[in-house]
Amino acid sequence: MNVENLLRETLADMADEQAPPPPARFLPPRPVRRRGVALAAAATVVALAAGGTIAVRTLSPETPVAPVAARPEHTVTIKEGWRATLLFDNLSRVTGEPAASFARAAKDGRALGLPPYAKGRLEGFAHPGTYRFAESATPTEVLAAMVARFRATADKLGLSSRRAPMDIVIIASLVQAESPTEADMPKVARVIHNRLARGMMLKLDSPLLYGLGKYGVDVTVEDTKRRTPYNTYRHGGLPPGPISNPGEAALKAALHPAAGTWLYYVATDPKSGTLEFATSAKEYAKLVERFAG
Fold it and tell me: Does the N-terminal or the C-terminal CB of the chain have fewer CB atoms within 10 Å?
């Protein structure tokens, strides 16, 4: 019996059997009827369920059976300190969905599972990390996964039990933006806490740049006069919301700042990202002079 006839009879036998198993699963071996050694010698018939269609392959005994392809997925890594706008752009690049689709999804805080203190705003709550999701995932599902990871991290750190958890997230976003390294984060957080406790203006560049829709480190005197609620040169206290999506280290630093009396810090070597800290205006002036020199 040739292979063609064998396949024709095999398919005829299969028509009398039960419906195929769920998609992407091999059919279990069926009893060989009337063929014995002839079936194994002629060919091995493998049936795969693809939707409602059965695809039949004829393989020689030496040909390995390829595994069923996994469900197509996207992988994206969200970096600490990304703003929501940068997040949407990168998600668009990976998925092919317009960035505007993610921006629209971000407006539905309830669907995303945002905590109540987020006040329906995604910024600050799209937790950094690497995510894998099906190609069919919607923008809402993608962003909700990031919010879920934030909530898990917040629970681990005890953030939700704090009296003002939103303030901690805002401080964490400032710490993330202002700290060249993780090692600097607890001390930067302490400077912010100390200035707030004394009623001093924060006078930080990162929230001002956020309010102006700019990136970088260069702020001009004119910038410091601009009218935006994120201008901490004009407004006391914290900015009205997070300025980025901080990572776990920044959240931890905001919750547990280093012990110290520092009120200032200066990047004395921007190339290496070296911060030096001062406890008085006089010490601060010396650091600025060294940096300017």
Answer: C
